[in-house]
Every structure is written in C-alpha cells, then in structure tokens.
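Practice problem: predict the structure.
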Amino acid sequence: FFEFCIDNDYLKKNPCKQFPPLASVKGAIRLPTTDEVQRLIEASGHDTEYGRIIRLLSVTGMRISEALALKVSDVKSDHIIIHGKGKRGSVDAIRFFVFKAVPAAQSIAEECVRCAHGDKLFTVTRNAVGSRIKELCKQHNIEHLSPHDLRRFAKWTWEIQMRLPPHLCNLLAGHGFEVRQHYHRQPTVEDLEAYL
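Answer:
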C-alpha cells in the first residue's frame, strides 16, 4: 500500500521502513519434543510437588497460574474446574477440563489431590516452578522449556497424537475464552462430554 502511495506521489517515503519486518522481531515458536517432555518429567521426580505440576501441565495444557490456583474442591470425579483468565470470580473465568477427553489427566489430578496441602493442590509459586524447570533442563541437557511450552505440548498432543478435533482442543485449552463469552454461553461439562 505504501509503495503504491510513493509510486503515485502521495507519500515521499514508506513510514514502515523504519521498523524491522515482523518475522525478524519474533521467531517461530519451538514446540518441545515428546522425548524432551518425558525427560523433564523423569528428572522432576514423580513423588515431588514439581513433578506433579509438570505432569499436570503437560497433560491438561493448563496455564501455570491456573494450575497453581487449583483447590482440592476443583477436582471432581469426571472433570477439573479451572479458574482461568478473565475477571477473578466471574462466570467467564471458569472452564472445565473433562477427563473423558484426556483420560491420563484423571490419575494425575487424583494424585495431586492425595498429596495436597490443605485445600490448595500446590504450595509453590509460579517463579519457583519456572526456575525449577529451567534448572532441570540445564542439568539434563534438555533445550530450555517453560511452563507455557508444556501447555503448547499438551495441545499438540491432543490435536496430533490423540486426533481430538481442533474446536475441542481450543475449548479444553481455554483459547479465545473471553471472546466466546460475549457471543455464547460457556460450555458445561455435559456439553463437552456430549461432544466426545
């Protein structure tokens, strides 16, 4: 458009030339491999709080803040109630993760409940989890991973390995959550199970 304006004497120079191209500003997102995630899980220890968080993130695709906010009462027999992004305490900040969609999540969630400290599933902080993951990656020669990389890995697993429909993957991950709230009611556990 700007080149057209210059060619037709509407502009003297392209105002966008002063900015780097978008592709050079942000690189491609690297998806962790199954081997990297498995090595991180093994390195974290199954019987540690960090190990449970890492396994939960890599299977449910929760945001780290959502996982750390979980309470024992949020884990039900067939689903997890996730208090996610949005206005805290409002209806639009709640979504469900149904175990029927990703059965492996149920045993991990139940283990987290058994090992819970009071009503909270986890006592560590977001920064502590990120630091521990970074430390484990360095110790075990795993390319740097973050809690959000585990979220991406979970969604990739659902779509590619488990062949869940993209729409369901987006619902489980809570993508586009706030936008959908303006146009549609949030899906219930029954809605998600019916979709499966």
